[in-house]
Design goal:
The protein is an all-alpha fold. It is built from 16 helices and 2 strands. The chain is globular, with a radius of gyration of 24 Å.
């Protein structure tokens, strides 16, 4: 297993190289003037486009530009993001913790509820519980996230003023940017606790409730369906009938035998879901004005912020490879046949 993990990690630089090279080539379809216009803020200074083009070497061959970017990357420099008004590395440090925090709050309920109710739905097929879980799965799968997000905002913020959008309120904002606040992890739920400020901690949690609830309901749907389908397939196999014929309790047959075999597709989906959340959920972050990595990446793409696009894409590609590695390792624990091989 150790050798397998090392081999997969050794492939990571090649995957990142391929992703960035492909993206870099696609971006070359933009004219140098279009890319240089990003750095010109005053329309009266359009005559300085050529100076910007010469400064950044935008007319040089693509392999030369890509080589310069790789050289900067080797020194830990990803360029300057005009969208974020800061270096790309600092922008990732600024926006990624917010997305990671939202992912941690959302993913565990999605996984636990999806596996639990998906299993019960298969065990009690066509019963009332099955009908309810299927209703949740169908509505969650078909309902656009921005519609659900706006409905939650109108109800719980517009009417009751319970859960506001954003990442924190005005009082917490003053605290977070104050000199006395210690930024330890970048995760405000933890940092507010480490600073001993319970009011700020509760404020941060209040701002997480609606975006997390939106993600849980929307993403839970697919995991419910996959778990239910996989469990129904396993429950109809001969080894399950044999276990029941031997007199084993139904709960033990489901938990010890069928569920473990049914978890293989669930592991695959869960790892992809986790990386999708980590890569940034653009629509949800936009609806709730949540300053995450996904919203920044889209804004960078809209404004032709090439360093920002490359930085966010590089991060997403690396996370995707690591998630695939994690799912392969989890297979060995779920399926003994893979472990023995």
């Amino acid at each position: 297993m150790g050798r397998f993990i090392l081999k997969r990690l050794a492939l990571l630089p090649f995957v990142l190289f391929g992703v960035t090279a492909l993206l870099f080539c696609v971006l070359q379809f933009l004219s140098p003037e279009m890319r240089a216009a990003l750095y010109v803020k005053d329309p009266r200074q359009l005559s300085s486009l050529e100076a910007v083009i010469d400064k950044y070497g935008l007319r040089k061959p693509v392999y030369v530009q890509y080589g310069v970017w790789l050289k900067q990357l080797a020194h830990g420099q990803l360029g300057y993001s005009e969208t974020a008004k800061m270096p790309v590395v600092d922008a990732i440090k600024e926006f990624f913790p917010a997305t990671f925090e939202l992912t941690c709050v959302s993913f565990l309920p999605i996984l636990l509820l999806g596996v639990y109710f998906g299993t019960l739905s298969a065990v009690y097929k066509d019963k009332l519980l099955d009908q309810l879980t299927r209703f949740i799965a169908i509505t969650g799968y078909s309902l656009p996230s921005f519609v659900l997000g706006l409905l939650l905002l109108m109800l719980f913020y517009g009417k009751f003023h319970w859960f506001p959008p954003g990442r924190y309120g005005l009082d917490t904002d003053l605290l977070v940017h104050g000199d006395s606040f210690r930024h330890v992890t970048g995760l405000l739920t933890l940092d507010t606790l480490l600073n001993g400020d319970w009011a700020a901690f509760l404020d941060v949690l209040k701002h997480l409730v609606l975006p997390a609830a939106t993600l849980i309901y929307i993403e839970l749907a697919l995991l419910l369906r996959i778990t239910r389908s996989s469990m129904l397939e396993e429950l109809g196999k001969d080894y399950v009938r044999t276990a029941k014929a031997k007199g084993l309790p139904g709960s033990m047959v489901v938990r010890k035998h069928a569920l473990r075999n049914a978890m293989i597709p669930v592991v695959t989906l869960s790892s992809l879901l986790f990386i999708m959340l980590l890569g940034g959920v653009v629509i949800t972050e936009t609806v709730f004005d949540f300053p995450g990595i996904g919203r920044w990446g889209v804004e960078a793409a809209q404004q032709l912020d090439i360093p920002g696009v490359l930085g966010s894409t590089l991060l997403a590609a690396g996370l995707f490879v690591l998630a695939n590695l994690a799912s392969d390792v989890l297979y060995a624990f779920v399926d003994p046949r893979i472990r023995l091989e």
